[in-house]
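Continuing the series of single-chain predictions for the mutant panel. This is the parent chain; the variants come on the following pages.
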Amino acid sequence: MNALKIIWKVIKFFLLPFLSALVMWVIFFSCEKRSVLGVEYRLSDDGNYYILSDYGGMNFSKTFEVPEEYNGKPVVEIGEDAFFDSIFLNEVVISGNVTSIGDRAFYRCNSLKSVVIGDSVTTIGDSAFSNCGNLNSIVIGDSVTTIGDSAFSNCGNLNSIVIGDSVTTIGDKAFYCTTFLRNITVGENNTAYKSIDGSLYTKDEKTLIHCAIAWYDTHFTVPEGVESIRDSAFDGNYYNLKSVVIPDSVTSIGDSAFSDCYNLTDIYYTGTESEWAAITVGTNNEELKYATIHYNYVPEE
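Parent structure:
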């Protein structure tokens, strides 16, 4: 009896877990580009199209292509939280019928490195790709008009992003804490935004939207003519930024514009002390209080 109990314990605590792990391992490494078990689609209220509603966070597929159709009807939306925490997924191709990527659709897909967004997509939802720590580049097609709040926030390895001609709305903190982001490219025919030296501005160059400096850059110069530094424009550059040149054309600094810039020590302002005092400064900019302000600064030619 004692021998049988010992054998049973060996099977229960060692052999069965080992076999289970082996099966999972085989499934994982046999997964290539394939149909995926567990993906759920929901019919729209009007019955005309499908929404990809749940990919399954523990799905072992490494690549996935959103199908153009399901049960004979187009797949038009990727629903909220559809790929949330899909930890094994590293490549996604979004088909030509999808027009909307929902809020938090790919939130915390930590293995995701590459995303191809079809030309039919018009909306990228709030936090759609937030916390995708290994996402390194993404091209936003010419059909996209809206990028939601925090859409690419905390994508620590994102180093470049291309914004197409049709984007007219970029939400707050869309690129917050993208520590390696150094180049935002905007289509030449975009009527709302433009890129200057890799950072993002409004088309008229009067508002700095996001300062794109990589972790090893310590200095940034706001161009002359900029009137407003947007909310969270520098927020999250706390590893590197030590000094900023601000021209006397600036009249407002948004909420959290310099939040968490812990190493910021010097502001070089081209105007007078009284002009600096007249600037409207939003909340949560304590870092500006602790930095040394150098007035009447003359930039080097």
